[in-house]
């Protein structure tokens, strides 16, 4: 049995949408897909809180951009970018229960020798992780900049997302899930 062909880029949104700002990574990837068309072969996934279940996706990626809430000594809503060896420590200091799974995911891929050689973590500093589907004003205001940062990072990695026209976005409509996420 041969290995599955590699995915040139995985964009993986992480977080729990039921815990306020913690769900910002999931919301960001949904906004990315709504506003942009991804290149052929690029995977954009809502990884939510799936943890180790995401291992096959991460292992087949040649490059990965993780999108998540990131604890940092900056005001809420601040954009944070980490790369390579700086990613694992950032998710090791967990903000919520799902990040135990993120650390395990990265460790498992590393132990198996299948961690993507290029790994970037993009996110925002959260303000509140309280139970609820609403994000704080600071994070909500910063989400468009995060989506743009993800598209720019993908472009820098050789995978250019193309902005959808207003007509294309209108034609896609607003699925029920988008309404839940406040999209």
Strand order across the biggest sheet? 3-1-4-6-5
Backbone structural class: alpha/beta
User: What integer value in Å does the Rg equal?
Assistant: 16 Å
Give the end-to-end Cα distance, rounded to a whole number of Å: 42 Å
Total number of beta strands: 7
Count up the helices. Answer: 7
Shape: globular
List the helices and strands in order. EHEEHEEHHEHEHH
Mean pLDDT comes to 88
**Quick one: CATH superfamily?**
HybD-like
Largest sheet: 5 strands, mixed
User: What is the beta-strand fraction?
Assistant: 15-25%
Uncertain spans: none
Describe this structure in words.
The structure is a single chain. This protein has 183 residues and is α/β, with parallel strands linked by helices. The chain has a single domain, classed as Rossmann fold (3-Layer(aba) Sandwich). The protein has 7 helices and 7 strands. The strands form 2 sheets. It has a 5-stranded mixed beta sheet, covered by helices on one side. Strands 2-7 form a two-stranded antiparallel ribbon. The termini are far apart. The model has no long low-confidence stretch (mean pLDDT 88).
